[in-house]
Each structure stands twice: as C-alpha cells, then as structure tokens.
Design a protein that fits this description.
This protein is mainly beta and about 290 residues long. It has helices at about 15-35, 70-75, and strands spanning about 45-55, 95-100, 115-120, 120-125, 125-130, 135-140, 145-150, 160, 170, 175-185, 190-195, 200-205, 210-215, 220-225, 230-240, 245, 250, 285.
Length: about 290
C-alpha cells in the first residue's frame, strides 16, 4: 500500500510574518499615542501675575558703608543704597513675597537649601521664601565679621557670628512665619526677610514685578502678597486643572507696613557692648537638624 504524504498547507501567518505584524501593530499604537495630546497634570494648575506700585517710589536710603572700613573696602567706595522699594519703569514692584494661605496636603520640603549670601555687607537676596523643614544656608562672602540674627515671633530664632569669609551657617526652619526678619548685629543696616510657609506654593516677584506659582491644587484659594514697606494684599483665586490663571496686585503707595515689617534700625556700625556675646562658627555649622 503506497504511503500517503501529508503536505502542510500554509496559512500565510508563519512566525516571521506574525512577528512583523506584531511590530507593525506596536508601531501603530505608539504613533497614535504620540499624536494624542498629552493629558494635563491631574488636579493642578498655575498662578501667575504682576505686582505693581502706582505711586512714585520713595528714595531708598544710602547705606553708610564708611561706618566699617572693611565694608567700604569691599564695595571699593561704591555708593550702595537700600533696596526697600524697587519699582520698574512700568510700575512692577520687586521683592514682594507671594504665597497661598490655608491648609494643603503635606508636601516634603525640598532637599536643596535656600541660600542667603552676605556679600558687600548686604543680604542677597533681600527677600526669599522657604518651606518649613527646609534648610537655610547663610553664607559669609565678606572678609569681615557678620553676626546674623533671625528675629522670630515663633521658634525660628538664631544668633550666630561669622568672623571670616567662606563660613556657612545652616539652620532648619521649624514653623510657619510670614515674615522672619534677618539682621546683622554688627552692621545694623543689613536687613532681609524670609517667608516661611508649610507648603511649596509661594514665590518672590522679579525685577519686573512678575511671579509664578506652579502645581497648585485645583480649587479656590486665598493668595497674599507681602512687601516690607507696604504690607499685605489679598485676593481669592480659582485654579482649574491644567490651566493658568492670572492674578495681578496693585499697591497705591498709601498702604502701611505689617507689624513684622515695621520698624527700622540706626544705619551704622554696632560695636558689641560688654556682656553681648558673638557666637563664632566654623566653616560649616548646623542648627536645628
């Protein structure tokens, strides 16, 4: 009996063709996803705006650098003024702290420190924001003694001396405080402010008065500005997911400073009196860790 030979019938879908079809389907899916618009980050939006001053700005006081020969030499005789009110030609107001008020889901503080540089016997920047739990670095870039104080109404106080350039004082902010004032116990004209808040939704206006706060939870919020001479202003803002809302603020120049920004000091050199202790630090010293 003759043997019957069975010949397989090809369906046209061998392994190589199936692989090609699979790769084609994958490429088609990828191209579809790439063509589709990227979804907005769920539940958050952006706030941006400009803070303006409509009044003619008052003159900023000249700093008497000659009170300390070291400061005078560091500035090479240059005349330096306070930066209390910095107004752009179109009215934009710099050095305004802007933040949201209220309670928000907890967000860990950034690992990157906020740096205040004592340079030219002034603070740089003059105004800054920091989140509770974040580390503050106060750096001395001057070849002279500085004695930085944190003047607090909460528990953010510190007082430390930095006799030489290159020293960095490190401090972890403990409590919300708008604003925490910085000043030097040696050079009484040195003034700065920190806005300490529990959340990351804050900013400081640029030289043009502009600010931007990103990744804000959707919903209605109270937004507040603070200026050391003109004090606070508030508005209510409605943030929608994936959108940018614009909120502008205007100071007339008649506003009064808040209690934390009020007051001043004699613009000169303070010689530590008997009984006052300056606390020198090493090149790097940590507090509140």
């Amino acid at each position: 009996m003759p043997l019957r030979r069975t010949i397989p019938v090809s369906t046209g879908y061998g392994p190589s063709r199936r692989a090609r079809l699979g790769r084609g389907a994958l490429a088609l899916a990828i191209s579809f996803l790439a063509a589709a618009p990227a979804p907005a980050q769920q539940g958050v939006g952006t706030i941006e705006g400009v803070v303006r001053l409509t009044a003619v700005p008052p003159p900023n006081r000249l700093i008497p650098m000659g009170a300390d020969p070291n400061c005078l030499a560091i500035n090479a005789g240059r005349r330096v003024s306070q930066e209390t009110v910095l107004r752009a030609p179109d009215g934009g107001l710099a050095n305004v702290f802007v933040n949201l008020r209220g309670s928000f889901p907890e967000v860990p503080p950034p690992a990157t420190p906020v740096v205040i540089d004592q340079r030219g016997c002034t603070y740089h920047p003059r105004i800054a924001g920091v989140q509770v739990g974040q580390i503050l670095h106060v750096k001395n870039s001057d070849m002279t003694l500085h004695n930085v104080h944190g003047l607090t109404k909460k528990d953010n106080g510190f007082d430390t001396g930095q006799p030489t350039a290159g020293q960095i004082f490190k401090y972890r902010l403990k409590s919300e405080e708008v604003m925490l004032r910085l000043f030097c116990g040696v050079h009484t004209w040195m003034t700065g402010f920190l806005g300490v808040v529990r959340h990351p939704y804050f900013g400081v206006t640029s030289s043009t008065g502009a600010f931007k706060i990103s990744s804000v939870p959707a919903g209605k919020h109270t937004i507040e500005t603070w200026h050391e001479r003109y004090g606070p202003l508030t508005q209510v803002v409605d943030v929608t997911p994936g959108a940018t809302v614009t909120v502008d603020f205007t100071y007339s120049g008649d506003e009064k400073p808040s209690a934390s920004g009020a007051g001043g000091s004699v613009e000169g050199l303070m010689v530590p009196p008997a009984g006052m202790t300056l606390h020198p630090v090493s090149a790097s010293r940590d507090h509140g860790r």
